[in-house]
Design goal:
The complex is a heterotrimer of chains A (about 325), B (about 180) and C (about 425). With about 325 residues, chain A is of the alpha/beta class. Chain A is about 35% helix and about 15% strand. In chain A, the strands form two sheets. Chain A has a five-stranded parallel beta sheet with strand order 7-6-5-8-9. Chain B starts with a strand and ends with a strand. In chain B, helix 2 links the parallel strand 2 (about 30-35) and strand 3. Helix content of chain B is about 30%, strand content about 25%. The longest helix of chain B is centred in the N-terminal third of the chain and has 19 residues, at about 5-25. Classes of the chains: A alpha/beta (about 325), B alpha/beta (about 180), C alpha/beta (about 425).
């Protein structure tokens, strides 16, 4: 099969990846296509390629996350970049250096790409305006987690071929989920129909103005969707007790073996991880034949390699 | 615009390449052809088909994407923005005699990148370079083992290989 | 006479006395002597008199801003009473009222006297101060309202915060009744507001920031109105920002309750959409709301429901605002361009005419805090502002006399330039 591209050349021009709300369908597709070219770097015996050789990537993580941090570190390493790990517990308030001062200090040491995770929505955007390095958002408050959104649609596209017309449900604490938002932007731009599912107390304000449907009943939705993305219930984030107990949440919104019986046989089960087994998803479902949770992790590497490659390329222009 | 090779001449050049390869390798059992994207890939398919027919055995063919190994990623020339695509080599390259195929050998940089890519994928016993057009202007110490046609087109001119599968017709033009 | 100031040929607007026309104003011995047609400056007694030709200009009672934050004591690097009053006088204000949420807060008579002394030393505008309602602004125990009243405080507020506990608020209202001063409230129910940093709505959702629900303001305002029915002392709702609050005020006034309210320039000009780029110059409390709320507030002004325009001048250093949106402090410092902003929001679109605007910046705010100012009646302090209503200029924060520059109006073209500010018969500012 010959794949010589003719006609209008697409040019990737973004030096930063801050959110999927900013990207159009062509840009998202371009990242996914590029990621495909990176998949093999992880499967062959020499798991390295040289495009980022001599470049310095900083993992600037103000929130706990071994999973995403490791994924980015591995992605950068596979592209032959040097990695600095910088984890900090507190944010700019009261103690220690401000976010800006921290980034400027790092920049003074000569860095090329900053991968940043922070509790404040807009933190990555704030950095991108104030430092010269490329900024990749690894999660800012409950605004966006763009590489997660990308790897989610990549996973779906790889298996289903295209997202056009697919019905996708996202279940859980939507109000505080940056994954839900990034997924929403990516999936709707690629033509899928997205439904947010959860209790009213966990829906974001004015959800009716977002390009999604809303349902408070997982039972009603489960039969209709092609893909279901189960979000982790994050106890550490929940203030003020939005539902009375774990028991009750699991009962109404947990993805159980029973519910899966009523789902389409080829439904894809996804989860950004880490899983609370038995809470939002039963073990048998997480490990079952419809689950692509581990593929998501594998694909995450290829997607992050593509993102680092592309922002670096744009910066070189 | 001048036509350097028409479709008949291209066919002859390819056959010429196959002749040279066959006489050199003498039915070596480990021979395989790998084409450099994008037009090298097409030429490689044609070449491996010819070789398979004439040697009466299956000469495997693969496609190599060299974008990740280019030396101009961080200092882009002009408007071009190379896109990363997939490498598809369905066989083990260890210990094989790899015929690396490209459409035009010019500065030698693509070949250098291709060799680096191959070496990250395995350890071929021998790598030989086969090109349709060999033009003057090397920037690196690289030579073609098999060349279909030599030209001394000037540096300002562009030598473009068009092939039926990708461009609608077989033709090599100088602009 | 000595110290005479004669302002001729201007359009004198004195809403308290129903004056709007071409008159001359004479100030003698720091007091308004008379406002009549064609006062001749020649003749006996006029030697040494300063004559100002105000042709084409507006001549108004000195402007009054009843809600500013001069961060002294405690945060003097952000603003001092001296720098703040210099900013005020350059903006045409002859009297301002400081909020007591300083560090330490203004909660007894020595604190009140401190503010007055600093103001006297600065010799710019008259500076008044409110005192806190509760000790340390904690909302638990009442502060020494009596002593503060005797020292000259013009009202009480825990501004920055609202008094959360209704029982405490009721007690405060009953106690304050002894002193005849106004109680002002920053209406914000903390339980509803949570850790919000902008209006709760579509924008807070897609920007991924926690939101402050309008109910946080409306719930407390509603509660306080019920308390006022029980303990009817003068109550002033500070910086109202929502359509819901407007309706509550409308109903309260219909019931003839002693409730007044004020609106800031930013709540008349900006919406939550401005936060879209996470620019902390738009981070303010109460937050910028929806376009419908801005319209409702403008309509409230047109309907006469709003009693005062007040800037809520909240200075912060650039380094303090140069943080991610979540962490940056709340506040817009717009004292020095306030007049031009009110003109843009209310006069240019025809919602108010100049007399209507001046009334909300002189007579009415003076009435809320009970000071003997805001008019050009004979014998009153010679506080006069001269404005060129047609001159337009571009707001440049780098010319501010305030120590802080945090406002989103850089580069805005506005009309209504202050030419001179006269405080107690002294020209304390000239453009």
């Amino acid at each position: 099969m010959v794949t010589v591209r003719k006609g209008k050349q697409f040019k990737w021009q973004r030096k930063h990846l801050l959110g999927l709300r900013d990207l159009d369908k062509d840009e998202i597709t371009y990242i996914l296509d590029t990621a495909r070219g990176f998949e093999q770097v992880s499967t062959r015996s020499v798991k390295k390629a040289p495009p980022l050789r001599g470049k310095v990537v900083v993992n600037l993580f103000f929130e706990d996350s071994t999973r995403t941090r490791n994924s980015f570190a591995l992605a950068a390493g596979r592209l032959s970049a040097d990695i600095i790990e910088f984890t900090k517990k507190s944010s700019s308030v009261s103690k220690g250096e401000t976010l800006l001062d921290t980034a400027r200090n790092l920049e003074a040491m000569g860095i090329d790409i900053v991968v940043v995770r922070h509790e404040a929505g807009g933190a990555a955007r704030f950095l991108s305006r104030n430092i010269k390095a490329c900024v990749v958002n690894a999660g800012d408050g409950f605004c966006e987690h763009p590489t997660q959104g990308l790897l989610d649609v990549y996973t779906i596209r790889k298996i289903k071929g295209s997202l056009e017309g697919l019905k996708i449900a996202i279940v859980g604490d939507i109000a505080h989920s940056r994954v839900a938002r990034s997924d929403m932007w990516a999936m709707t731009k690629l033509g899928a129909e997205v439904t947010f599912v959860g209790p009213p107390t966990l829906m974001p304000t004015q959800v009716g103005r977002l390009p999604v449907k809303v349902s408070y009943s997982l039972d009603e939705i489960i039969e209709k969707v092609d893909v279901i993305n189960v979000l982790r219930i994050q106890f550490e984030r929940l203030g003020g007790n939005p539902f009375p107990s774990i028991r009750e949440y699991s009962h109404y919104f947990g993805l159980t073996v029973e519910r899966m019986k009523r789902a389409k046989p080829d439904i894809l089960v996804m989860h950004p991880g880490p899983i609370n087994r038995g809470l939002e998803i039963e073990s048998e479902v997480a490990d079952g034949r419809n689950s692509v949770i581990l593929e998501q992790v594998t694909n995450g590497l290829a997607v992050r390699m593509a993102v680092l490659f592309l922002v670096n390329q744009a910066a070189a222009q | 615009m001048k036509v350097l090779l028409d479709s008949r001449q291209i066919e002859q050049a390819l056959t010429g390449l196959a002749d040279q390869i066959i006489s050199d390798s003498l039915a070596d059992p480990d021979i395989a052809v790998i084409g450099i994207r994008s037009r090298g890939e097409i030429l490689a398919q044609r070449l491996s088909a010819q070789l398979s027919r004439r040697l009466d055995k299956d000469v495997p063919c693969g496609t190599l994407d060299i974008t990740l190994y280019r030396d101009d990623l961080n200092s882009p020339q002009g408007n071009a923005q190379p896109q990363v695509r997939t490498t598809e080599i369905g066989f083990d390259i260890d210990q094989k005699v790899i015929i690396l195929v490209d459409d035009v050998l010019y500065t030698g940089r693509s070949t250098r990148a291709a060799m680096d890519a191959l070496v990250d994928l395995g350890r071929p016993r021998v790598i030989k370079l086969a090109v349709l057009v060999d033009r003057v202007g090397r920037e690196l110490p690289i030579q073609a083992d098999y060349a279909g046609f030599k030209t001394d087109a000037a540096p300002g001119e562009s030598v473009q290989v068009n092939l039926v599968e990708s461009d609608g017709k077989d033709e090599v033009v100088v602009d | 006479m000595n110290n005479g100031v004669l302002i001729k040929n201007g359009r004198v607007i004195d809403p308290a006395n129903g004056i709007d026309g071409k008159y001359d104003v004479l100030i003698v011995d720091h007091k308004i002597e008379r406002v009549t047609e064609k006062i001749e400056e020649s003749g006996p007694g006029f030697e040494g008199c300063t004559v100002i030709d105000a042709a084409g200009k507006l001549v108004t009672p000195g402007l009054i801003d009843i809600h500013v934050h001069f961060r002294e004591p405690g945060d003097e690097e952000e603003e001092t009473i001296a720098s703040g009053s210099a900013a005020a006088v350059a903006a045409g204000f002859t009297s301002v009222v400081c909020m007591p949420n300083t560090k330490p807060p203004i909660e007894n008579e020595t604190d009140v006297e401190y503010v007055h002394r600093k103001a006297r030393q600065a010799r710019k505008t008259h500076v008044y101060t409110m005192g806190t309602i509760t000790k340390s602004l904690e909302g638990v125990e009442l502060a020494e309202m009596g002593f503060m009243a005797e020292a000259g405080a013009v009202g009480f507020t825990d501004d920055g915060r609202g008094v959360q506990n209704p029982a405490v608020m009721l007690r405060a209202l009953k106690y304050a009744a002894m002193f005849g001063l106004v109680i002002a409230q920053h209406c914000q129910d903390d339980a509803i507001a949570g850790d919000g940093v902008m209006n709760s709505g579509y924008y807070s959702t897609i920007l991924g920031l926690p939101g402050i629900d309008p109910l946080a303001e409306e719930a407390m305002l509603w509660r306080d109105i019920q308390l006022i029915k029980r303990a009817p002392i003068r109550y002033h709702a500070q910086h109202i920002s929502t359509a819901g609050s407007v309706e509550l005020i409308r109903a309260a006034k219909k019931d003839s309750l002693p409730v007044t309210c004020e609106v800031t320039p930013h709540h008349l000009l900006l919406t939550e959409e401005s936060c879209g780029d996470y620019d902390t110059n738009y981070k303010v409390n109460p937050p910028l709301r929806r376009a419908e709320d801005v319209e409702a507030l403008k309509q409230a002004v047109a309907d006469g429901l709003v009693d005062a325009l007040a800037s809520d001048h909240a200075p912060h250093l650039q380094s303090e605002k140069e943080l991610e949106f979540l962490a940056a402090p709340f506040g817009i410092a717009s004292l020095e361009c306030a007049l031009g902003l009110y003109v843009k929001a209310l006069v240019e679109p025809g919602i108010l005419d100049w007399p209507g605007l001046i009334r909300l910046m002189t007579e009415k705010p003076a009435g809320i805090i009970g000071i003997d100012k805001g008019t050009l009646s004979k014998g009153k302090q010679g506080d006069v502002t001269i404005i060129d209503p047609d001159a337009d200029y571009v707001i440049d924060v780098n010319t501010f006399r305030s120590k802080s520059r945090n406002c989103p109006y850089q580069g805005w073209r506005v009309k209504g330039k202050v030419e001179k500010t006269i405080v107690g018969g002294e020209i304390r500012f000239e453009a």
